[in-house]
Amino acid sequence: MKRFKMKDIVFLAITSALLILVSGIIMPIVMFTNQFALRQVLAAPIFAIFITIALIKVPKIGSLSIIGVLTGVFLLMMSPIMFFNNIVGAILTEILIVVIFKGYSSNKAIFFASMIYMPITIPVSLIYTATMEGISIIEKVKSPAMALTFGVLSIILGIIGAKLGFKLAKELQKAGKLEVSK
User: Fold this and answer.
1) Distances from the Cα of 178 to the Cαs of 19, 64, 167, 173, in angstroms?
2) Spatial separation of the C-alpha atoms in residues 151 and 12, rounded to whole Å
3) Are 115 and 155 in contact (CB under 8 A)?
């Protein structure tokens, strides 16, 4: 397993800060909605773009978990569920990356992680909120068709965000501003 260098952690911290700053665009919408999974739909492309760039720069297992913790700690001030979602979503995503791809050594693995991170928080959020509110999962979802639609939309927008992230990373690499960490 590759060790993290200080510059890796600094880059992931800066990426996390930028992610929080840019995702602030959607915060007014997601903070006041009770529509299950709408938060993930709106956040999916933004998170996918930044995660793609971060994983291209620091393709090490644990990179996404660091981002999840750093963004989660900030979001804890607004909502415990967002803290929990970010951390558990990152850990689950990285487990899938290890099991399916054996790490971030391929663009497919980076693409998959970037695309699936936000959608994977949908069931995490569902279980957490249903448990905390003392209601059944069915009561929380209200409309399974709408929840499924939002799940699919978050995957589609995650794919779009990951593709944009790869394009941005390529341009940053051409400009000499993004080197892969060894």
Assistant:
1) 17, 17, 12, 5
2) 27
3) yes
Per-residue pLDDT of the chain (182 residues; tens, 9 = 90+): 679 999 999 999 999 999 999 988 887 777 777 777 888 899 999 999 999 999 999 999 999 999 999 999 998 888 888 888 999 999 999 999 999 999 999 999 999 999 999 999 999 888 888 888 888 887 777 788 888 899 999 999 999 999 999 999 999 999 989 988 76
Structure-token pair, residue 76? 């804890």
Place of tokens 């944009």: 164
One-letter amino acid of 174: K
pTM above 0.85, yes or no: yes
Q: Where are the alpha helices (DSSP H) in the chain?
A: 6-23, 27-30, 38-57, 63-76, 80-101, 107-133, 137-141, 144-174
